[in-house]
Amino acid sequence: MVTGYSNYRVEVRNVKFIADDGRTCPRTAMVSFYNEEGEEIDSKLFGAVDINQIYTIIREGQDLILDNFYIHEFSLSSYRRINGIEKKELVPIIGFSAKNAFFEAKVCTDFTYSSFSEGEVSFDGSHFAKGKVLFNGSVFGEGNVVFSNTLFRNGNIEFTGCVFCAGDFMFKNAIVKDGVKDFQDIHFGNGEVSFANTEFNNGELLFINTHFDSGRFNFKITRITGGKVDFHYSVFGDCEIMFERTEFGNSRVDFRTVDFGSGRINFNRSLFGNGEVNFEGATCKAGKIQFKKAEMGYGPKNFNLMEMADTDISFERTDFGDGDVSFYGSTCRTLSLKSCHLDHYIDLRLSKAELLDISDTIVRDIIDIEPYDFPVDIKSLDMSGMRLLGKLYIDWRHNKCNESIQNQHGTTLRQKAEQFRILKENFSGTGKYEDEDEAYIMFKRFEAKSWLTEQQDKGGIAKIVSHIPNSFQWLVFDKIGLYATSPGRVLLSVVVFWFSFGTLYFLIDLSGLGKTVSAVGNPDKLSTLLQSFYHSAITFFTIGYGDVYPIGLSRVVSGLEGFMGVFMMSYFTVAFVRKVLR
User: Fold this and answer.
1) E strands along 414-538, which residues?
2) Has residue 333 got a pLDDT over 80?
3) Within a domain: residue 399?
4) Is 158 in the same domain as 9?
């Protein structure tokens, strides 16, 4: 049956209608379909059944088969009034089928508070050409309920408070025009609930407080033009949830406090338009939530306070569009923003996570990980390959940067070194110079480890020789002065060297291989030990009074000490000036 028509006309003729399955009607309804220019584009014949005959079938408890029939002004409210039944008393409907039927009503087609028997209930291919469609409070027995390929031209449909037993609910390939689509407070049984490839157009699409049991919820390739999509307070059981390639249009998308159960949730390649996206307070017991290659437009994206401690969340290659993105206070097992372009403020102050992956990202604005009013507990932080053009708000101590990078699995020593370098440059730009020093030290250490590992992998002579420069760097650059970041440590090293050389002069004197001699006698009556330390001081600091001079092996040691003195004082000067200038 054609669906893209702008208008239609119904002509009922006194001609017997014979359906394909042999059912007959005394009259035939011919429905002609017209386009916007008023041209007829199709026509179809239906059996024109009298509404009172339908009511009689319901009252007598017979099977109600309306396939290929034209039904005018169907209303269970009118049926109750005629038969003296309470307004909300369930009306039993036995063996129902209305495939390829044509419904129209001035106000509404009313199936409210109906009770469908077990077995399939099908409206497959039917048209609700005029008026609202109401199923409020209806109860469906076990079996499939099929609304696939249906057309709702009015766009206002209500399934509020319906109860579905075990079986599939199929709303695939349906077309619902602009209006309110109300699926609130429904309880679906075990089975698949599918709105795949359905066109909801503009208006409100409401699934507030709806319960889905085990099975599958399929919203794949569904198209929504704009308005509001609201799953607020909905509860999912152990089911697979599919929103892959769903087009939400310029809608306000609301998944606040939704319980996603323990299944796999797929938003891959979904398209969010220029409206707020809100997942605040959503929960998931275990599983995966994926937004890979999703696209978002203008408006804020709120993922705050989500409770998903055992859930992996992935936004890999997602385009967040314009507007801030916030995960403030959320818990998850892993959160991945790998390969994303982060052009606006991103709040990643997670309450708890095993892994935060922001590798291969391009950051043009601010990423905020720094704790403020609660601790940010991120065990592992992966920034490998990041292009940081903006700023990273992070604290070396409170965010445990050292541990969070070293805890990474699957990254090389070179990649870890690169991440410490990123932090070092970021801390420098944000004026956190103490944190900059800590990051710089770890950068140089991992750079050295990486170089040594690479040389070891080469084998041969390189494997042996590589230990010499590595050991020199470890001792002189790292242990003596922490890569010129600690003038206090350099000064302490100066004292250690002075004391060590003084002790060495004394031992040489005792061994008879050399000694220090006073050129002016010994007016201060210094002992050999004190004279050794005095000579060490004037040599190390290059004072050179000449009142005490070395002979024998002590001459060689004095030359070495003089060089070390010049080197260490220069080292101290660089480290001290670096601190003062910053």
Assistant:
1) 514-518
2) yes
3) no
4) no
- pLDDT bracket for residue 82 (50, 70, 90): very high
Token pair 């088969």 is found at 65
Angle in degrees, 0-180, between the axes of helices 487-511 and 528-540, rounded to the nearest 10: 140
pLDDT at 483 over 70: yes
Report which residue type is found at 132.
Answer: K
Residue 193 and residue 169 share a domain: yes
Read off the pLDDT of residues 200-228 as tens digits, 9 standing for 90 and up: 999 999 999 999 998 899 999 999 999 99
Nearest to 112 by CA among 83, 81, 86, 137: 137
Higher local confidence (pLDDT), 446 or 456: 446
Does residue 162 sit in the same domain as residue 77?
Answer: yes
Written as six digits, the tokens of 88 are: 């909300």
Tell me whether residue 104 is in a domain: yes
Nearest to 224 by CA among 194, 204, 254, 210: 204
Q: Do 40 and 104 reside in the same domain of the chain?
A: no
Using only C-alpha atoms, the chain has a radius of gyration, in whole angstroms, of: 40
Domain boundary among 221, 239, 273: 221
Q: Are residues 84 and 203 in the same domain?
A: yes
Q: Write the burial class of residue 163 (CB in 10 Å: 0-12 exposed, 13-18 middle, 19+ buried).
A: middle
**Which of 196, 221, 246 delimits the end of a domain?**
221
- The answer for 356, left when phi > 0, alpha when psi is -120 to 50, beta otherwise, is beta
Instruction: Specify the DSSP class assigned to residue 480.
Output: I
For the record, the structure tokens of 544 come out as 């050179």
In a domain, 462, yes or no: no
Q: Is residue 245 pLDDT above 90, yes or no? A: yes
Instruction: Quote the number of domains for the chain.
Output: 3
Distance CA 515, CA 510 (A): 8
290: CB partners within 8 A, 6+ apart: 264, 265, 266, 267, 268, 313, 314, 316
DSSP character at residue 55? H
pTM, full prediction: 0.85
Considering the chain, what percentage of its residues have pLDDT values greater than 90?
Answer: 71
Its domain, for residue 40, covers 1-48
Tokens at 121, concatenated:
């209930």
Tokens representing 326 are 């916030």
Q: Which helix (H) or strand (E) holds 200?
A: strand 199-206
Q: DSSP readout, 497-515?
A: HHHHHHHHHHHHHHHTSEE
Distance, in Å, from the CA atom of 351 to the CA atom of 370, rounded to the nearest integer, reads 11
Q: Are residues 114 and 211 in the same domain?
A: yes
Q: What is the mean pLDDT of residues 450-459?
A: 85
Cα–Cα dist 80/90, whole Å: 10
Q: What's the pLDDT band for 582 if we cut at 50, 70, 90?
A: low
254, 228 Cβ separation under 8 angstroms = yes
* Residue 162: how many other CB atoms lie within 10 Å: 25
pLDDT reading at 472 higher than 90:
no
Q: What number of CA atoms fall less than 13 Å from residue 337's CA on the CB side?
A: 21
Q: What angle do CA 287, 288, 292 make, to 5 degrees?
A: 175
Per-residue pLDDT tens for 126-173? Answer: 999 999 999 999 999 999 999 999 999 999 999 999 999 999 999 999
3-state secondary structure of 259: strand
